[in-house]
Specification:
The chain is of the alpha+beta class and 348 residues long. 32% of the residues lie in helices and 30% in strands.
Length: 348
């Protein structure tokens, strides 16, 4: 059995990724994606590449040291990057015995490298859950099957888009040269503040600069103009047969113009133009289907996918010691974040 672990700058990662059929993969497995995100995550991108009886396994993640606790040596945890991840393979159906052999080798490597815990954001458009972890559903995502004549499923929303198509006040522009990237960033940050998002979702300038530098060929921006002012903007990723409307921003003062409807509509049209089979537009902010963001996105499609996360404790003794120390230091956070898996990473 071949078993290698590569850094993002090692050609072995990209070479293995390129051997995975596009329908079995997504943009979030690219080494460029991990390099774009590494500064924000303050962690080392790694990718396990293994081959067994003709099955190629590719499993990227961040390896991050655990600091600030009373431990006997340096320990780490691993987690897939923001977006989605998990194990991808060159075959759609993989015999269970091969998956088990792969998992056993991964477990040995994690234990040998002082990894305490593992957190997986499973890709809902693949959703194979191949890692031998505990997987639970955290929300529902909505995806669109793009077509040139795409129509929204909600009648009122269709009327809004039809009305906007007839006016000259509202226009849409696909930006493949990052001409108005600064406006997208500004509008995204406005949204993040208004929605009181967790600090994790406030990205530094380096993150956005790295996307432009490293992922330009897999990225488009979709802007909605009111006259000459951008009122909605979305960051759109695509790879193979899949698209993802990754982040979105809006000027709340112009919400009555229904620019968000128009932006999602044009994301679907762009996906059709790129000949993609599916466009993921995400879900709500929680697992509650009455969530207002989830209800908004249901206007665009009746296709749903469960979003799963995987949790695995590699070293129970050290994990429990970390949690105990964290509870002692931050008793006021213990109840609020009791359901978080890597809770010991949460501080003031």
């Amino acid at each position: 059995m071949r078993f290698d672990v590569y850094d993002a700058d090692h050609p072995g990662w990209k070479e293995a990724f390129n051997r995975i059929p596009a329908e079995n993969s997504d943009v979030y497995y690219l080494p460029e994606w991990y390099n774009a995100y590494r500064q924000h995550e303050q962690a080392l991108p790694k990718c396990i590449v293994a081959e067994l009886e003709g099955v190629l396994f590719v499993y990227p993640f961040f390896l991050k040291p655990i600091k600030g606790y009373d431990l006997d040596k340096t320990y780490y945890d691993i987690q897939t990057a923001y977006g989605y991840g998990g194990i991808i393979t060159n075959q759609g159906i993989v015999p269970q015995q091969l998956i088990e052999k792969f998992n056993n080798q991964v477990n040995v490597w994690l234990s040998d490298n002082n990894v305490v815990a593992e957190f997986i954001r499973e890709n809902p458009l693949l959703n194979d859950c191949r890692r031998d972890a505990e997987f639970i559903k955290v929300r529902t995502n909505i995806y669109i099957e793009p077509a040139p004549g795409y129509k929204l499923v909600e009648a009122k929303a269709r009327q809004n888009v039809s009305k906007l198509n007839r006016t000259h006040e509202i226009t849409a522009q696909v930006d493949d040269s990052f001409e108005f990237y600064g406006e997208f960033i500004r509008l995204y940050n406005l949204n993040a503040v208004r929605l009181e998002m967790e600090s994790y979702y406030f990205f530094p300038d380096d993150y956005f600069n790295n996307i432009k530098l490293l992922l330009a060929e897999n990225t488009r921006l979709i802007h909605i103009f009111y006259h000459d002012q951008i009122i909605n903007s979305g960051l759109f990723f695509f790879y193979g047969n899949k698209g993802n409307l990754h982040l979105a921003g809006a000027d709340y003062e112009f919400r009555h113009l229904k620019g968000n409807d128009y932006m999602y509509y044009h994301a679907a049209l762009l996906s059709a133009e790129l000949k993609l089979d599916m466009l993921c537009i995400g879900g709500g902010l929680s697992n509650d289907e009455n969530d207002s963001l989830f209800r908004f996105k249901k206007k665009f499609s009746n296709n749903f996918k469960d979003v799963m996360i995987g949790k695995k404790i590699i070293n129970p003794d050290i994990y429990n010691r970390l949690v105990d120390q964290w509870k002692f230091r931050y008793p006021h956070l213990a109840e609020k974040y009791s359901h978080f898996f890597l809770k010991y990473r949460l501080a003031e």
